[in-house]
What does this fold into?
Amino acid sequence: MSANVTKAKIGVLGASGYTGAELLRLLIPHPRVEITLLTADRRAGKTMADVFPQFAPYALPVLTSIEGADWKPQNLDLAFCALPHGTTQTVIAALLAAAPRTKVVDLSADFRLADPAAYARWYGHAHGAPQLQKEAVYGLTEVYRAQIAKARLVANPGCYTTCAELALIPLLKAKAIDADEIVIDAKSGMTGAGRAAKEEMLFSEVSEGFHAYGVGHHRHMAELDQEFSLAAGRDVVASFTPHLVPMNRGIFSTIYIRGVKAKPEDLHALLLKAYASEPFVHVLPFGKTPQTRHVRGSNMTFIGVAADRVEGRAIIGSALDNLTKGASGQAVQNMNVMLGYPETTGLEQVALFP
It folds into this structure.
């Protein structure tokens, strides 16, 4: 690529967390971007090498605080926001008020729910930027690509939700499965819990076992309700239980469904057709099951369909890397669409195995 190609100016707000580090891993070699701003309030004044030594060889901006960031319109073409839920609304509102032409990909949950009442119910407080919530586009790229291309604010989906939605939305749209008979049994690696020090995340607390959490009431349920209902054209409430597994990366969802006048082989064929031209979703041969190790570090989702021994039922396995396709990789994919770049740019890396 010519050295004269204009590069977009990119900021990462919340660069000291796992998703921030994953964004930098993907953005540093990206041929169409220049990283011009990195924030991390608790690490302000430090270099990225101080926080993540793997970045020592690269010339990157020194970390600054949000308060120290300058939102002049010419400073950023796009900002990734990898801040905690609840704080993101006011930060993005201030950024877009000062620089309305800047595009934003938000990796928190703050703009994923279109209904303000649903947001308040699931997150325990009123939304702080309801006008922006109205314009936010849900960032499941394979489903909302056309809307994302025109958006100023994209709400990157959750990791668990991406894994389940990619497997089920085509089947719900085709009315090929019973929308009232969906069970999602999902497992995530430790990085899904963030980098902050927590007693329950100590090695001796989580190694040599795994456990369910958020049983019966996990915030990602609101996202699943929203997207499954839109796909089905009616209210859908799926059963969803997340589990924490002592591995660094990965999500695996085992999904139990019942076909409506459709055999498991038919459901597999529908998914094959839906994703035939998608670069980041791969449907395995019928009866094969994906593994998290086969998507580690890549932006891929692997989906497998198998027949259950119970007539009419099928079992879907869906696997992705929670930090890549489940977070930062999908965010870069959305950035590419928003800025008019080829969608796969900077995301071509093959999974790291072993």
Q: What stands out?
A: The longest strand covers residues 251-258. DSSP finds eleven helices and 13 strands in the chain.
